[in-house]
Design the sequence.
């Protein structure tokens, strides 16, 4: 396997230009939202709303304003995290979701049948159906570009290098230096998803954040869906045993009543 | 705040609610029919045959509903076989949607075999004599009965093995759906058994099974709600009213009351067994409806319930 590749997104230098969203849509030929008719959210500069089957990049705008002159913008270009232990890949019944030689997670559109198990399994709400193909879709980390030695369209287009692409091990070192730099400036920065011993074995697309994960719409402790399998199956089996026992006891009582009636 | 609130809804709605409902009935009906096939008497045969027919039709309807719900229905077989590596099987024992597809397929197969045996018993055409009154028939009933339990319960396990609010916040949904499947299966057999001339003693046993399954369901429902922790607040909404009034009140307590003290329920007491069975079916449907849609619609009402700012 080639070296694990990924994204490091430094949210402190994102300017919300959405070049990444445009580059992603352009390269991957994703259909326009709302049939191309302009639709504004009305309460935010964020008109994309969320990641889904036709938006594989989403610049999240977090508008923290308490008054007209006090507050701040937080901006984060969100994307599939390409989890080292991926919930979507775990549950996919068709084998459409694969791990590539770059340690990224890709959905094969010609295999997916649109059962949507991966949508419910993703702890980040990244995946959705593409209404045109009828299949689940998400960021491929530009698998086709990687195969010919190009970097993904979004990081290529990012004017501030908020999105950085490269080998994950290098990105982690670079990210750690940036955190130290920001901390020296008094900024409460930290990395989300960089720890290979952390949740999901680490995220190959990880972030530098300056507020709580929930503020950015990220779960504090993302988990695999299979965490519930053993316990849920065990209680189901136990209830099956109880129900079977109750039915058989009832049947026996029925027979005994019948015999008593006959006598 | 539960981490499950940061996920996206899969939009399992209008085909999946009836799929879970019909699947529960089919699994429960086969399980009860198989029990009577093994341990029942000659007077129970009518219910046994009815149970196998319900299971066979339910299995086929379930397969159709599940296929129609897919984004690409023509690729339904990708659930079972590796589309780019035939004839390799697609089976993940750790993914309920994967092993559940196999349970559905095998259950339907066994249910159809048993139904063909039941047709032979009735002397009808399109039947299999080898599956009537033979050791093979008993074996098919045994395996099919176990598959019926698996079919009735796996749907709840499937929901638990996600990252969605409510579903993944409790390990009890599989047990809850199974108990509901047995009770709705018994209710269906009571209603059809009355039309098909089932023996009174068989119907009484079905009613007794229904009572016990309802009690088990009530206990599991309480455990399910208690296990949700802070996510319980989701039920402080219209969905909670449906759960309390429709599922608990109309679908569990009222049928139990009709079974135990029919005289206290006015007009409903005229046909307590029939009315109780009808109410159980309504409650079983509402249980799936409210469990699926309360989670699916979480984005719309999470602000209203105060779970998210």
Sequence:
């Amino acid at each position: 396997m080639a070296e694990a590749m990924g994204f490091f997104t430094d949210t402190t230098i994102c300017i919300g230009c959405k070049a990444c969203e445009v580059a992603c849509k352009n390269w991957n030929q994703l259909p326009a939202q709302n049939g191309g008719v302009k639709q504004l959210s009305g309460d935010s500069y964020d008109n994309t709303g969320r990641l889904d089957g036709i938006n594989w990049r989403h610049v999240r705008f977090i508008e923290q304003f308490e008054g007209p002159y006090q507050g701040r913008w937080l901006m984060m270009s969100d994307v599939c995290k390409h989890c080292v232990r991926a919930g979507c890949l775990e549950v996919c019944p068709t084998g459409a979701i694969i791990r590539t030689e770059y340690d990224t997670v890709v959905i094969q559109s010609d295999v997916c049948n649109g059962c949507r198990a991966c949508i419910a399994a993703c702890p980040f709400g990244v995946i959705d159906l593409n209404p045109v193909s009828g299949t689940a879709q998400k960021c491929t980390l530009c698998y086709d570009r990687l195969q010919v030695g190009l970097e993904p369209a979004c990081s290529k287009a990012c004017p501030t290098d908020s999105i950085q692409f490269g080998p994950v091990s290098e990105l982690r070192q670079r990210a750690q230096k940036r955190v130290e730099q920001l901390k020296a400036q008094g900024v409460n920065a930290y990395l989300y998803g960089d720890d290979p011993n952390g949740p999901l074995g680490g995220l190959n697309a990880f972030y530098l954040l300056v507020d709580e994960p929930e503020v950015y719409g990220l779960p504090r402790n993302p988990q695999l869906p299979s965490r519930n399998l053993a316990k849920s199956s065990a209680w189901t089996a136990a209830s099956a045993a109880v129900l079977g026992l109750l039915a058989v006891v009832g049947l026996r009582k029925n027979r005994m009543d019948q015999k008593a009636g006959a006598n | 705040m539960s981490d499950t609130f940061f996920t996206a809804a899969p939009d399992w709605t209008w085909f999946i609610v009836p799929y879970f409902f019909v699947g529960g009935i089919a699994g429960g009906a086969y399980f009860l029919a198989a029990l009577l096939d093994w341990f029942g008497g000659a007077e129970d045969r009518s219910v046994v045959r009815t149970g196998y027919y319900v299971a066979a039709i339910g299995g086929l309807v379930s397969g159709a509903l599940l296929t129609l719900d897919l984004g690409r229905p023509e690729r339904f077989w990708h659930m079972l076989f590796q589309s780019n590596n035939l004839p390799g099987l697609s089976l993940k024992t750790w993914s309920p949607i994967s092993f559940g597809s196999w349970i559905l397929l095998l259950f339907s197969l066994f249910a159809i075999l048993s139904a063909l045996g039941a047709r032979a018993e009735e002397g009808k055409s399109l039947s299999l004599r080898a599956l009537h009154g033979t050791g093979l028939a008993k074996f098919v009933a045994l395996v099919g009965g176990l598959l019926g339990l698996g079919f009735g319960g796996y749907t709840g396990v499937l929901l638990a093995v996600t990252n969605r609010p409510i579903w993944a916040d409790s390990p009890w949904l599989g047990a809850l759906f199974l108990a509901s499947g047995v009770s709705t299966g018994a209710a269906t057999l009571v209603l059809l058994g009355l039309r098909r001339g089932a023996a009174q003693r068989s119907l009484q046993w079905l009613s007794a099974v229904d009572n016990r399954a309802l009690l088990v369901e009530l206990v599991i429902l309480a455990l399910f709600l208690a296990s949700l922790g802070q996510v319980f607040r989701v039920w402080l909404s219209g969905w909670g009213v449906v759960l309390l009034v429709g599922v608990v009140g109309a679908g569990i307590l009222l049928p139990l009351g009709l079974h135990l003290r029919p005289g206290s329920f006015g007009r409903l007491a005229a046909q307590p067994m029939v009315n109780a069975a009808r109410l159980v079916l309504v409650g079983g449907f509402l249980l799936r409806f409210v469990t699926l849609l309360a989670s699916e619609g979480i984005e719309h009402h999470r602000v209203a319930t105060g779970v998210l700012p």
